[in-house]
């Protein structure tokens, strides 16, 4: 039974019990509709309380019904049924009232809430609320607050909701008894006007134009937020029935959109990521304390992330001066968070107080997890692990944050090698959501599981990656950069390439990104690759680095920068270098779409190789890497979903054409095969 009705005197208590989150499945919708009729028919009941069992109110739609044809009763009808019931309903909210859950609450005559968050997150899935949320909310809390909630997809707590008039009262203590007492009080009072019958709020002149600009700027190329805004506007300008019809039409249109499909894919990919099938039933090694060796850019960020999650942290550096610098790096992160209002100064101080800086490895004798983030140098890293082998408990988990070195080589000679793995964070490590988890040939399952458990603790998206040069993300990045140079050698400019990729949806193009991060790190990688006998392709970047044009930090890279400024200016120096390197090569005119193809489709090709080699376990994981580590637009679903949605046959055909002109590698056999077989399996679920 998903819904039971009990009686507390004249109050009917409707309890929803649909674990884990009381999602609005077809069965629940049906049961709610029946509860309305049953209570209407019950002469002894004067009011109803709608309350949920478990940890939350109705938290939203049933994800297992996503992308499937909707089954009756439809939610707008259920909500209308509650609103039109013969007895007043009181929603008793705890946990989350999100999406359809909040819409059900809006159908009730009253809302009381304990500790809870309320919101309409549909835009995050490329949708809008489809059961009157965009229509009732402005009638209840005004246009401005409704626009914020509906177009932003964020949630608010019970107190804020009360201040806005979204809930009638906030209760402390037992929610059920408070809600029943509330229902008794209102049972014989005149009922408030149903929200659907209330007047629409007035707005100031220019309100909608202003809102449209603000929402468009935030949404960039996502369509749902602007469509949501149009619905709220219609709700404020039309009668209830017309506004509901407009909302329905918009909802159905968006449900079939490519963006909604992409965002749904990412939603499921993120849900699957923390649970790799190979670790089913494996108990992770417990991590209650952590240490970071190396307090530079990455070490400080990792230490901050560990503290943010509540772990005590020891930060180990080479000598006293380096310890001071490392601690200052961490402190700067917390101060920055406090300045931005993310945490209070007191919390910042408390987090910092939990970081112990030292140059004495002896302090690590009882630490559960040690993450190494020292220079990218095999000998230096091995020396660190030799010391860790001596001082740490034999069951302590030891991890390297290396970007490009082979963890198997770093871990050679380690005592108890089964406790060692790669944990590849992204910069800034306290902000970026991605964590590549890299088992070596000897990593024990419970140690790999500890990596995933750590990701959960830190609020990160874990992706299992196999060992290869650059793991998943940086291996694809290398291809992107090579493609970007190929474009320059055949007639495109850095500004045109960057602009096209921004239009595609990336926050930055490949050249701007290199100038920001610095060209020296990749140059160092290429030097190492040449020493291994490889021939990395970066003719222009090599020459820029030889001129010490490392990017913004040296006032010039792919662009020029005026001292103290970050606005890229086209560079005559770069143009001259490109001209020399391009001499004798065929030139062509590049439009935006062909630039994007020449960058993104080779990315897909490399990703397919990565999948084929087993470096990535699922195609969807590669999408998560690109979205959470490299700014690939979420609403495009990541490169694999993008390619699949576009059609792999077309992807192969374009790659074949690029390859014929020497502008990309030909599509790999696995990609051709996938195109013939009808596509990748993005995610098994
Ligand atoms: P960094 O140069 O900013 O910091 C390295 C720190 O390690 C320095 O503070 C140095 O004093 C310390 N150190 C060196 N030898 C040490 C030793 N024996 N014991 C204790 N501390 C020692 O370098 P960064 O950028 O933080 O990189 C660290 C590691 O993280 C490298 O392996 C790098 O490849 C990797 N990484 C870097 C990313 C980035 O974007 N910078 C991203 C992901 C990984």
UniProtKB/TrEMBL annotation:
BP terms from Gene Ontology: fatty acid beta-oxidation
Residue ranges of every copy of the 3-hydroxyacyl-CoA dehydrogenase C-terminal domain listed in the record: 470-561
Keywords: Fatty acid metabolism, Isomerase, Lipid degradation, Lipid metabolism, Lyase, Multifunctional enzyme, NAD, Oxidoreductase, Peroxisome
Membrane-spanning parts: none
Keyword Oxidoreductase: yes
Localization: Peroxisome
All residue ranges annotated as the 3-hydroxyacyl-CoA dehydrogenase NAD binding domain in the record: 290-465
Pfam families: 3HCDH, 3HCDH_N, ECH_1
Main location: other
CDD domains: crotonase-like (cd06558)
Gene Ontology terms, MF aspect: (3S)-3-hydroxyacyl-CoA dehydrogenase (NAD+) activity; enoyl-CoA hydratase activity; isomerase activity; NAD+ binding
Record SUPFAM superfamilies: 6-phosphogluconate dehydrogenase C-terminal domain-like, ClpP/crotonase, NAD(P)-binding Rossmann-fold domains
The reaction(s) this protein catalyses: a (3S)-3-hydroxyacyl-CoA + NAD(+) = a 3-oxoacyl-CoA + NADH + H(+)
Pathway the protein takes part in: Lipid metabolism; fatty acid beta-oxidation
Protein name: 3-hydroxyacyl-CoA dehydrogenase
